[in-house]
Amino acid sequence: MPDVFDLLVIGGTTVSSQGQSQLDIGVRDGKIAALGKLASQPTHSTIDASGCFVLPGMIDTQVHFREPGLEHKEDLESGTRAALMGGVTTIFEMPNTNPPTTTAEALAQKLRLAEGRAWCNYAFFVGASPENSHLLATLENLAGTPGVKIFMGSSTGSLLVEDDETLRAVLRSGKRPCPVHSEDEPRLRERKALLSSNPHPREHPFLRDEESARLSTERLIRLVRETGRPVHILHISSAAELPLLRQAKEEGLPITCEITPQHLLLDSSWYETIGAYAQMNPPIRSSEVRSALNEAFQNDLFDVFGSDHAPHTKEEKAKPYPQSPSGMPGVQTILPLLIDQVLGGSFTFEKLVRMGSENPASLYGIAGKGQVKEGFDADLVVVDPGQAQTVTEEWLESKCGWSPYTGQTLRGKVRDVVIGGHWSVQGGARIGEPKGSCVSFDWKEPA
Ligand code: DOR
Q1: Which residues on neighbouring strands pair with residue 127, listed in sequence order?
Q2: Tens digit of pLDDT for each residue in 71-90?
Q3: Taking Cα atoms as reference points, which of 341, 419, 428, 421 lies closest to residue 89?
Q4: Do 321 and 387 sit in the same domain of this protein?
Q5: 181 CA to middle of ligand 1, Å?
Q6: 292 plus 151 within the same structural domain
Q7: What residue's CA is closest to ligand 1, atom 10?
Q8: 159 and 235 part of one domain
């Protein structure tokens, strides 16, 4: 008598970056225990995934969940709940909370706060600052962190590493890949004076212009060449950075980069319709820039998808520009939007899995995640291509209660989600208790 599975996912098409296969998935003790023809095996519960795609859960390595300090915008419970409902099974949360996550104590506090409240798996970045640069090599190796985040341009919160000398010290302190918000702070500061006398969010991509992003990315690449430190450049937003990134990769520098759905899908016309709700850093830009980003995406310049989920309340967004805060939610919509694009023929499920699960796992050395593979964690998403998902405020779980995409009906539906072997979304509805756990890492320095 074979051992009973805790859960079987049968009849679906499983996806990896290498292709698709008809494989049933047997889950035991939170792990993928077997793959193959398993439909007749004994099991405690079964997900019938016939006609559906089964993906490794999405790993969103850039979200801002606001706890501690700004829980009126989001907290770890609501943010991870939004992630789960959108098929994101692991998040990495950014350090620009209050207090910022710049010390071992602040990291330990976040880990305590997440315990038993997280609907998906999690880890927390440490933030680099001029004060902690000498401690980062130690901080980056603490349990529960994927590494050190650098803000070269200021955004929400106080974290900032703006000059080359401090940046060099940060890059020399530690080894793991650093995600970087790349906008040139001195230029951003200088351009604040160019605000018109009748300010409107449409000025945002002019004030935080393409040159601000290009300059910063150029400086960063120079310092990567000098220090050899791997960096991961977040939310690429400009056409001007694309040749720099291409060249740096050709040169073999340890540089990877992220693209968000909003930079691929939105352009400056959105400032006219939704105003400050389209305001984020780095900005949404012209349709020409959006086309250039899409072309680079088709040419595989970007390594991972990230949402940059950055919730602010409607009241905060209603403030007149530039007091309106920058950032938009996205952790619940990232996968549904990308599935919609796949089903519309823009790219493949294989690429979605590569950039949404496999590459984030290999970039940060996440142990046992990112693939539907024996021995890996059972973090799974069942996508029904025959159903649709309309983005409504009722469906959204984020405390902020809005999305730039409300009213849109997306092709495909995140039907079921399994977190560490626990069936947590069933037929589009959440069930059970929060089952997320802290991510482990086995990152090794490339030989
Ligand atoms: O628009 C943004 N908002 N960009 C960031 O980098 C930070 C984020 C936030 O935390 O609000």
Answers
A1: 149
A2: 999 999 999 999 999 999 99
A3: 419
A4: no
A5: 9
A6: yes
A7: 156
A8: yes
